[in-house]
Amino acid sequence: MAFTPDTRLENAPDELLTSLDLQRIAQTVRAGFPERKNDWTYSDRHCAQAILNFLYLGPTSSIRDHNSLSRNRISSLLVLQDSALKEFRPSSVERAAEALGLQVKYFHVANVTDLVGQLPDIIRYINIHLMSSMEQPCDNEERGSLSPCDPERSKLLVTCASGNNLSAVIATAFIMATLRQEMRRAIRLVQCRRVSCVFMQDEMKALQTWEDILIAQSVVRGQGDSDCTSRNGSLKHSLAVPRRLKRDLEDMMEFDPQESDIGFARAADDERFEDRDSFVPFLDMARLKIGLSTPVR
């Protein structure tokens, strides 16, 4: 399957990934993209499905199937739980982690709106786990050359209670952010591999918010890159005398002789600028009554 990046998202930043890292991840996806699920049955909703060749999606209960975890070579579990269960660790998750030597990462959210705020941390965790399998270039390889990730050593299972809502939002948001795909295309990609995924109004709003964030970040970063390239040329302009934003006395006294229709207004207006020192804040009316006209300063 061809992944054509959405041009609106092409500059979306990630603090821990370089453009070369993103190329490696995209290369890994293209190297072995899982087939879409054409023979879906109701019982499949209780199992995990491969959304990408290194990213699986399913309910937390699917972690009980150690044979499936071993067969799919899952190396890390990302478990999404309700924020009220911060102190709770499902025994099935702990047993699987101990028996198979899996990494486990818990994220706690109150609702899908709360999930949007944690998406950067969640996606960063997925990317770090994926990049941990990066093959180091050999000594005779050119520095910076592409080396693909090894999905066989970095497969990750994302779960929530049902595997159809919040975890599906994570998988979709990851595809949007890392593979630079627009929202609806990413949703279709997830749904055709885990058919039971449900994107209701709240989930759609959350993903639309996420897409807006990515687009805004891309625009800001694109403008920043453009500013850097033109900085030398714009420096001369920045050193020029800045334009005055407010009128000063000289501006107000300027007069164009051709504007004769306002000439009389200018002449009459001159009086308020003459002998300004004689103006004082107030006059002592008591002194005026006794004949002392000198104003109090």
UniProtKB/TrEMBL annotation:
Domain of life of the source: Eukaryota
SUPFAM superfamilies referenced in this protein's UniProt entry, alphabetically: (Phosphotyrosine protein) phosphatases II
GO cellular component: cytoplasm; nucleoplasm
InterPro entries: Prot-tyrosine_phosphatase-like (IPR029021), STYX-Interacting_Phosphatase (IPR052449)
One GO MF term attached to the UniProt entry: F-box domain binding
GO biological process, any: negative regulation of SCF-dependent proteasomal ubiquitin-dependent catabolic process
PANTHER family: SERINE/THREONINE/TYROSINE-INTERACTING PROTEIN, SERINE_THREONINE_TYROSINE-INTERACTING PROTEIN
Name listed for the protein in its UniProt record: Dual specificity phosphatase, catalytic domain protein
Organism of derivation: Moelleriella libera RCEF 2490
Lineage of origin: Eukaryota, Fungi, Dikarya, Ascomycota, Pezizomycotina
